[in-house]
Amino acid sequence: MHVGRSPRPLVDCDGRVFGALAGCPRDPQWGDVAKEAGDFILRSKELCVFSPKQATHRRGNYPSLAEGISYGGGQKRVDNLKNSTNNTRVLNTLNQNVAICRLTKFGNAALQLFAPGLYNFYEENIAKLKEDNQSLCSNFNGSVFGGATYNFGPNVVTAMHTNHANLAWGWCSVTALRNFDHKQGGHLILWDLRLVIEFPAGATILIPSAILLHSNVNINANETRCSFTQYSAGGLFRWVDCRFQTQKQFEAEGGDMKRLGPERWKHGLSMLSWWKDFKL
Questions:
Q1: Are 186 and 216 in contact, with CB atoms under 8 Å apart?
Q2: To 5 degrees, how large is the angle CA 227–CA 230–CA 231?
Q3: In this structure, are residues 138 and 54 in contact, taking their beta carbons and an 8 Å threshold?
Q4: Who's near 258: CB < 8 A, 6+ residues apart?
Q5: For position 176, which CATH number holds?
Q6: Rounded Cα gap, residues 42 and 48, in angstroms
Q7: How many domains does the chain have?
Q8: CA distance 205 to 184
Q9: Which of 21, 111, 154, 217 would disulfide-bridge 187, Cβ 3.0–4.6 Å?
Q10: Across the beta sheet with 2-3, what order do the strands follow?
């Protein structure tokens, strides 16, 4: 059993760091920060109006709202995800909450610490996208992640899934919140790795969610759990690689994404850190 409160890397057999149990900041008030964020998310749920697809989806039977810069799912170009006027108002209020902003900063800091090459790649590509299309807006100041999702609960327990639309070698930052006994439930299961990780409220874990099958252990009936995630869609980087146009348009001009595929994967792996290079 791997406890998710203290920081530690996920390292492959070659010594490559491919994820991180970032844990919590060394801040005696962090418990209060996490409580405020979780409470505010759960209260905000009552102000939202969820479509059937937002209320129940392949990741689980709980309501969620996604926002941010994205490309995929029928979008004709990179754009800001659209939500209803009401839900957009709620999301904007959530994004301005001081406690939630601290969660985002910690997720970004953890990515920069454990995978600085990947962090720089995210930062550079978001900057290129915004330069090409000035209508694009990040969810949070200083965040390199393109998208974010609020999983409102009160019983956020994910089914076994991958987030296949995310960047294949990219990392998703997940923060668990609310009131549950992390010794008995809420664990993160990484099925491919045969790992079951204790995931207490307030802790953050970063994984390549596009390629690792993952889910959560059920929590007790009298408990509540919600979560906050940050990630970047793979389509964002493909849009940049295709010179800010669709793959179809790129290939019509002589580009070859199939040839670039293996090169992109190799380049992606080169962004990950080696554990031996960390100074302990």
A1: yes
A2: 135
A3: no
A4: none
A5: 3.60.130.30
A6: 11
A7: 1
A8: 18
A9: 217
A10: 2-3, 195-198, 188-190, 214-216
The structure's pTM equals 0.95
| Cα first-last separation, the chain | 23
CA torsion sign, 95 to 42 to 64 to 29? positive
Question: Phi and psi of 20, rounded to 5°?
Answer: -155, 135
Tokens 């902003």, located at residue: 101
Which of helix, strand or coil describes residue 198?
strand
The 10 Å Cβ neighbour count of residue 21 is: 25
Length of the chain, please? 280
Instruction: Let me know: does 199 contact 22? Beta carbons within 8 Å.
Output: no
- SS3 of 37, please? helix
Say how far apart CA 66 and CA 81 lie, in whole Å: 7
Task: Please give the structure tokens belonging to residue 89.
Answer: 């108002």
Q: For residue range 41-52, what is the model confidence (pLDDT) as tens digits?
A: 999 999 999 999
Tokens of 278: 């960390």
Model confidence band, residue 280 (pLDDT cutoffs 50, 70, 90)? low
- β-strand 2-3 against 195-198: which pairing, if any? parallel
Q: pLDDT of 123-149, one tens digit each? A: 999 999 999 999 999 999 999 999 999
The helix or strand, by DSSP H or E, that contains position 117, with its residue range, turns out to be: helix 116-132
The angle, 0 to 180 degrees and rounded to 10, between the axes of the packed helices 98-114 and 116-132 is: 120
Domain of residue 119, residue span? 2-277
Only one residue has tokens 């994004």, namely 95
3-state secondary structure of 258: helix
Provide the pairing of β-strand 79-80 with 64-70: antiparallel
Rg, C-alpha atoms of the chain: 18
| Separation between Cα atoms, residue 185 and residue 33, nearest integer Å | 22
Distance between CA atoms of residues 174 and 187, nearest Å: 12
